[in-house]
């Protein structure tokens, strides 16, 4: 079985007025929305959410963002999140760290993950790496990810491909499957 993991497509990252806006994140809404809708027809859709406490240690590195139970921590409306989708709230870069994502995937008998979202070189990268090291096949959808800079975007994709052996595809290839 396969699953789509949509990493941190949240208001604080994806909207221009967000606390930690990722430039051009809104440009992937249309494509990512098509990927999510297509995935719902054939596999589980799992949204990860950065979900920080007010005093999170991460705020020594980054501006305060995605504080639990705030509007900024919500998944963007453009992806039309549904109650039947799965939601993983995470406090660190990887969606596997301190969450039940691995348990959920094993219960669903998932072997292959398609991953999209933000930021390519941070939470997408760490989630993809942890997935590979747990034995999952990982495919990253290139045109459904964004990072804080072009350098970070390209670095993240290259790292996932060369270090974690993740396959990098375009959304058109996912939509054809």
From TrEMBL:
<feature type="domain" description="Isochorismatase-like">
    <location>
        <begin position="3"/>
        <end position="167"/>
    </location>
</feature>
<dbReference type="InterPro" id="IPR036380">
    <property type="entry name" value="Isochorismatase-like_sf"/>
</dbReference>
<dbReference type="InterPro" id="IPR000868">
    <property type="entry name" value="Isochorismatase-like_dom"/>
</dbReference>
<keyword id="KW-0378">Hydrolase</keyword>
<dbReference type="InterPro" id="IPR050272">
    <property type="entry name" value="Isochorismatase-like_hydrls"/>
</dbReference>
<dbReference type="GO" id="GO:0016787">
    <property type="term" value="F:hydrolase activity"/>
</dbReference>
<dbReference type="Pfam" id="PF00857">
    <property type="entry name" value="Isochorismatase"/>
</dbReference>
<protein>
    <submittedName>
        <fullName>Cysteine hydrolase</fullName>
    </submittedName>
</protein>
């Amino acid at each position: 079985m396969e699953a789509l993991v949509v990493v941190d497509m949240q208001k604080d990252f994806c909207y221009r007025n967000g606390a930690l806006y990722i430039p051009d994140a809104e440009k992937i809404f249309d494509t990512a929305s098509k990927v999510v809708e297509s995935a719902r027809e054939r596999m589980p859709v799992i949204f990860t959410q950065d979900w920080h406490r007010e005093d999170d240690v991460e705020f020594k590195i980054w501006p305060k963002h995605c504080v639990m139970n705030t509007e900024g921590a919500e998944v963007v409306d453009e992806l039309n999140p549904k109650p039947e989708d799965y939601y993983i709230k995470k406090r660190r870069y990887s969606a596997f760290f301190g969450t039940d994502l691995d348990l959920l995937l094993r219960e669903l008998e998932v072997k292959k993950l398609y991953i999209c979202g933000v930021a390519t070189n941070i939470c997408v990268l760490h989630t993809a790496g942890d997935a590979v090291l747990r034995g999952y096949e990982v495919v990253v959808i290139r045109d459904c990810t964004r990072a804080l800079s072009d350098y970070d975007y390209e670095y993240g994709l290259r790292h996932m491909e060369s270090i974690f052996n993740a396959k990098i595809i375009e959304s058109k290839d996912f939509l054809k499957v």
